[in-house]
Amino acid sequence: MQKSVGNISTAIGFILLGIMMLLRQSNIEILKNIMVFWPIILVVFGIELLIEAKRLKENQVIKFNKGFILLVILAMVIDGYYSVSDSILNCIRTF
């Protein structure tokens, strides 16, 4: 029997990602500051994994939620985009 792990982390992560996208559409520049904390998603996932491992019964296997992997990749891409765009803007300002 398989037990899925990461459903709560994925749901919370996608909700936060949606909120950040709404803020971006509203031209609120808080998104850059919030994206610094995207690794918190990994912490929540780790806590969820520990809780589920403790509840694991005999003959059960932990299966990871594929949406969580997508969420982490999206967060890394968005964070990378803002890091690169900030670096480019800083280079332009120094000229």
Low-confidence stretches: none
Question: Pairing-aware structural class of the strands and helices?
Answer: mainly alpha
Largest sheet: 2 strands, parallel
Instruction: Give the CA-CA distance, first to last residue.
Output: 61 Å
Radius of gyration: 17 Å
- Overall form: elongated
The portion of residues forming beta strands comes to 5-15%
User: Order of strands across the biggest sheet?
Assistant: 1-2
Topology as a string of helices (H) and strands (E) = EHHHEH
Domain LiaF transmembrane: 10-80
Transmembrane segments: 7-24, 30-51, 63-84
Organism: Clostridium cellulovorans (strain ATCC 35296 / DSM 3052 / OCM 3 / 743B)
Keywords: Membrane, Transmembrane, Transmembrane helix
Which descriptors would you attach to this protein?
95 residues; mainly alpha; transmembrane helix; LiaF transmembrane domain-containing protein
Structure description:
This is LiaF transmembrane domain-containing protein. The protein has 95 residues and is mainly alpha-helical. It is 73% helix and 8% strand. It contains 4 helices and 2 strands, in the order E-H-H-H-E-H. A two-stranded parallel sheet has the order 1-2. Helix 1 packs antiparallel against helix 3 (40-55) and helix 1 (7-25) packs parallel to helix 4. The termini are far apart.
Layout of helices and strands:
Elements: E1 2-5, H1 7-25, H2 31-35, H3 40-55, E2 61-64, H4 66-94
Parallel strand pairs: 1-2
Helix pairs in contact: 1-3, 1-4
Task: Characterize this entry briefly.
This protein has 95 residues and is mainly alpha-helical. It is built from 4 helices and 2 strands.
